[in-house]
Amino acid sequence: MNARTSEKVAKGIIWGVAVAIIGALISIMGFILIRGLPAINLEFLTQASYDMGRGGGIFPSIVGTIAITLLAVSVALPFGIGTAFYLAEYTKGGIIPRIIRFGAESLAGIPSIVYGLFGFIFFVDILNLGWSILAGGLTVAIMMLPMIIRTSEEAILAVPKIYREASFSLGATKWQTIRCAVTPSAVRGIANGIILSIGRCIAETAAVMLTAGSALRMADSVFSSTRTMAVHFYLLATEGTAMDNAYGTAAILIILIFLINVVANSAVNRFVAKKNKGAK
């Protein structure tokens, strides 16, 4: 087999794998949307659940999902992005950066049920937060950290060194260089990591169920227990008594994650376009 034939075979395999992945994605999304969209209406989105979730809507679960996600993101973003900038810009090797990277990589490989067990023991029991939005949000924030750190660090390292050198040559400080030269160029990669982390947060089940609980009532504070949409779908699907509501909840989850991706990417594209226009 000559080089040209080998290249064609490799391209064919790559395209085949890509088509298979896209086909699997479309099949899963299509199946859930076909089964779930008929169950979605105004009452389903605005009413509370009753009869253990078999009847009514999912409004409290929507609020609980958004509350836990916002809390987790607000905690994870400063630590994650700050750690990424520290590793990429303020260290030149050494034992501490290696320990941090090893810790982040180790956290990324821990199963979600272990995070849930840790959150239950530490946040729910030891800190006496109980099953609550606060305990669930803090647990999910820890789960989000590895992805935010690694993707943000890679995005920062991908910024050409000439940007930094040009900034320093104009008399800018280290912080001014990071803020004005590095961050705008790395924002797309950082945003992609954040979006992926948010998607995992919204779809998380085991860790949230062990820390935030599964209460159907509307949460009135961060110390209240709540049931996220993912937990609601899981419980209904395992019981098998309200599959229409289960598929409707899953469809809302897919639509919510899709909208977050579209809005976030649109915002990043506008930010990058504005910066590029300003640079010209």
In words, what does this structure look like?
The longest helix has 37 residues, at 243-279. The chain has eleven helices and two strands, in the order ααββααααααααα. The protein is mainly alpha-helical. It starts with a helix and ends with a helix. The protein has a two-stranded antiparallel ribbon with strand order 1-2. The chain is globular and about 65 Å long. The mean pLDDT is 87.
The chain-level mean pLDDT equals: 87
Poorly predicted sequence stretches spanning 5 or more consecutive residues:
none
Number of helices: 11
Reading side by side through the largest sheet, how are the strands ordered?
1-2
* Molecular shape: globular
Largest sheet: 2 strands, antiparallel
Order of H and E elements: HHEEHHHHHHHHH
Q: Helix content range of the residues, please? A: over 70%
Helix vs. strand class: mainly alpha
Descriptive terms for the model:
11 helices, 280 residues, mainly alpha
Short summary:
Helix content is 78%, strand content 1%. The chain has 280 residues and is mostly helical.
Topology:
Layout: H1 3-36, H2 42-46, E1 49-50, E2 55-56, H3 59-89, H4 95-108, H5 112-126, H6 133-157, H7 161-169, H8 174-203, H9 206-211, H10 229-239, H11 243-279
Antiparallel strand pairs: 1-2
Helix pairs in contact: 1-11, 3-6, 3-8, 4-6, 5-6, 6-8, 7-8, 8-11, 10-11
